[in-house]
Design goal:
The protein is α/β, with parallel strands linked by helices. It is 37% helix and 22% strand. α1 packs across α3, α4 runs parallel beside α5 and α4 packs across α7. The protein is globular and about 70 Å long.
C-alpha cells in the first residue's frame, strides 16, 4: 500500500488535469487500497492497437498524463521535423487529448497538425497517407467501446496502423519518459477545417450508375453523419434519412447500452424508422465511423447482415469494377472462408492474415483492392488500390448503397444477391460466441484447457486438425488463438479479444446448395447452434 501511495503522490504532482487530481486525492484521503491497486498496480499497455481504456487517474486509465507520455514516446521514434496529423472523435476528453499530443510533439521538434473538430477515423487514416512529409498520424478514439472509455491509435506514414516491432519500440520509449510536467511543450499548430481530401477520394470510387435506393442511416451518436451525408451527395445518391435520436455526437451514447452496431438492440431505432418509411436499406456506422452495419427487409421482417455476408457482397462488387491479375483481396483467420472461393473464381490473389486491419493492410504480394474482417470492417478500392489503409465505414456504406441500387433496378435485393452467392460457392454460414468476463484469468484458464485437451468433435463434426496459432505457421506471426478444422469444411477459431475482456469464438459451417437455398440456410442454422452448444461447453 505504501508503494502504491508513493506512486499516486508522484502522479498527483505532475497531473495537469484538475478532475483526475481531485479523483486521486479523494482516493488517497479515503485510504481506498482497492482503488489505488486498480489504478496503479498495473498500466495500460501500448500495443499495435495503441492505447484504450477507462477514463480516470493513474497509469491504468486514459488521462492527460497517459496521453502525454504516449505522445513523448511516439516523438522519440519519429524523425525530427516530421509532420504528424492528429484527429479526434467526440468522446469525453478527446479534444483535450489531441491538443496535449500536439503540444508534446511540437515541443519535441515535430510539426503537428490537428483537425479543427471531431472527424471519423477513416478521414484521419486517409489524410495520413496523402502527403510524403507526413511521418505519422494519431487518432484519439475508443471506437465502439463504452462511454467511460477512450483510446489512442497510431498510424504510420502509409496510413496503416502500426505493427511489430514499431509498437514495442514506441512502448519502450514511453517507459523512458520522465515527468510530464517537465516535458517541453509547443503551441500554435495548424488546423484542418474539413474532410475535403477524403471526400474527394471516396466520391471517385467506381459505384456503377444506379442511384435509386432509399436508406435510413444512424451514426450511433458518433461523428460519421456529416461526412457520410456529404459523400452520398457527391456520389449522387439521395440523402439517407438519419435517425434523429442518434444524429448528434454524444459521448454518453444515451440510446444504446453499447455504441456498437453488432450489439443486440443497437439498431432498433434505425430499424423502426426504416419500417415506417418503407426503406430499402439500413446503414449504421459505429461512433468513429470505421465500421459499417447493414440491414435489409426480408420475408420475416428486417434482417441484419453479418460482417461476412457484407464482406462477400462487397468483394464481388469491387472485383467487378476493377481489373488486373495482380489484384489482391484479403481477410483474417476468423472471417469466412468464402472470400478464398470468390478470389479463385475471379482469378485474383487471396491472402489470410491475423485479426486486425493492421495485418490486412500488410497482406501481399499484390495490389490490395479489398480487405475485410467479420467485425463489420471493410476497406474498398478501385484500380489504384484501397482508398484507406484501415477500416472505412463510409466508403463501405457507399459501396453497399451502390449494390442495393443495382439490385433494385433488376427487382432484386441484397438477400437475393446472397442467395446467388450461396448457389455459386456453397453456403458459408458464420456466427460468433463471445464470453465477457470480469476476471481475465478465466480467459487464460480456458485457453490453457483447450490447448492441453482439445476436443475431438464439435457440433457433431469430427475435428480433423487443430492449430495452436501461438506457434508460427503458414507465414502468420504468432498470436494467442486456436483453430479447429472440422469435417465438411467447417471451422472454429477461439481467441481472446484484443480490445475488450472477452473470449471470442468464431464459428463457420459450409454446406453445398443443390436445391432450395432457404432449406439449406435452415440446416446451417441448426448446425451452427449445435456447434455453439459444444464450443460453449468446451470453454466453460
Amino acid at each position: 500500500m505504501s508503494d502504491l501511495r508513493a506512486r499516486a503522490e508522484e502522479w498527483l504532482a505532475q497531473d495537469p488535469d484538475p478532475a483526475t487530481r481531485a479523483e486521486l486525492r479523494a482516493i488517497l484521503d479515503a485510504g481506498d487500497a482497492a482503488a489505488l491497486a486498480d489504478r496503479f498496480g498495473t498500466r495500460l499497455e501500448f500495443g499495435t492497437a495503441g492505447l484504450r481504456g477507462e477514463l480516470g487517474a493513474g497509469p491504468n486509465r486514459m488521462n492527460r498524463v497517459t496521453v502525454m507520455r504516449a505522445a513523448a514516446g511516439l516523438a522519440a521514434r519519429l524523425p525530427a521535423g516530421g509532420r504528424v496529423v492528429i484527429g479526434f472523435d467526440a468522446r469525453h476528453g478527446s479534444r483535450r487529448f489531441a491538443d496535449d499530443t500536439a503540444a508534446v510533439l511540437s515541443g519535441a521538434g515535430l510539426r503537428p497538425e490537428v483537425f479543427a473538430g471531431p472527424v471519423p477515423t477513416p478521414v484521419l487514416a486517409h489524410f495520413t497517407r496523402a502527403f510524403d512529409d507526413i511521418v505519422a498520424g494519431v487518432m484519439v478514439t475508443a471506437s465502439h467501446n463504452p462511454p467511460r472509455d477512450n483510446g489512442y491509435k497510431v498510424y504510420w506514414a502509409d496510413g496503416a496502423q502500426i505493427v511489430p516491432p514499431t509498437d514495442a519500440e514506441i512502448s519502450a520509449a514511453i517507459d523512458a519518459v520522465g515527468r510530464v510536467d517537465e516535458l517541453p511543450l509547443g503551441e500554435g499548430w495548424p488546423v484542418h477545417e474539413d474532410a475535403g481530401l477524403y471526400l474527394d477520394a471516396v466520391s471517385s470510387l467506381r459505384l456503377g450508375g444506379d442511384r435509386d435506393v432509399s436508406i435510413v442511416y444512424t451514426p450511433l451518436h458518433g461523428v460519421g453523419r456529416d461526412v457520410l451525408l456529404a459523400a452520398f451527395d457527391r456520389a449522387g445518391f439521395p440523402a439517407p434519412a438519419v435517425v434523429p435520436e442518434q444524429a448528434e455526437p454524444d459521448p454518453d451514447f444515451p440510446t444504446v447500452d453499447f455504441p456498437n452496431p453488432e450489439e443486440p438492440g443497437a439498431l432498433d431505432l434505425a430499424l423502426g424508422l426504416a419500417e415506417a418509411r418503407g426503406a430499402d436499406l439500413v446503414i449504421a456506422n459505429d461512433p468513429d465511423a470505421d465500421r459499417c452495419a447493414v440491414a435489409v427487409p426480408g420475408p420475416s421482417g428486417w434482417r441484419t447482415l453479418t460482417g461476412d455476408e457484407v464482406g462477400g457482397l462487397l468483394a464481388e462488387h469491387v472485383l467487378r469494377h476493377t481489373t488486373g491479375d495482380d489484384r489482391l483481396v484479403a481477410t483474417t483467420i476468423v472471417s469466412s472462408s468464402l472470400l478464398r472461393s470468390i478470389a479463385a473464381a475471379h482469378r485474383v490473389r487471396f491472402a489470410e492474415t491475423l485479426t486486425g486491419f493492421k495485418w490486412i493492410m500488410k497482406a501481399g504480394p499484390g495490389r490490395l483492392v479489398f480487405g475485410y474482417e467479420e467485425a463489420l470492417g471493410y476497406s474498398v478500392g478501385d484500380d489504384r488500390g484501397v482508398l484507406v489503409n484501415d477500416k472505412d465505414g463510409i466508403g463501405a456504406a457507399l459501396a453497399v448503397a451502390a449494390l442495393a441500387a443495382d439490385a433494385r433496378r433488376d427487382g432484386r435485393t441484397l438477400l437475393d444477391l446472397l442467395d446467388a452467392q450461396a448457389r455459386r460457392y456453397g453456403l458459408h454460414a458464420t456466427s460468433q460466441l463471445s464470453v465477457r468476463v470480469s476476471d481475465l484469468s478465466l480467459i487464460t484458464a480456458a485457453m490453457a484447457r483447450l490447448r492441453s485437451d482439445p476436443p475431438r468433435e464439435l457440433g457433431g463434426r469430427r475435428v480433423e486438425s487443430f492449430d495452436d496459432l501461438a506457434r508460427p505457421a503458414g507465414g502468420l506471426p504468432p498470436t494467442d488463438g486456436l483453430r479447429f478444422r472440422l469435417a465438411g469444411g467447417s471451422r472454429v477459431v477461439v481467441r481472446p479479444s484484443g480490445t475488450e475482456p472477452k473470449l471470442k469464438c468464431y464459428l463457420e459451417v459450409v454446406l453445398p446448395v443443390d436445391g432450395d437455398v432457404a432449406e439449406v440456410r435452415a440446416r446451417a442454422a441448426a448446425d451452427l447452434e449445435a456447434l455453439r452448444a459444444d464450443v460453449s461447453a468446451a470453454i466453460s
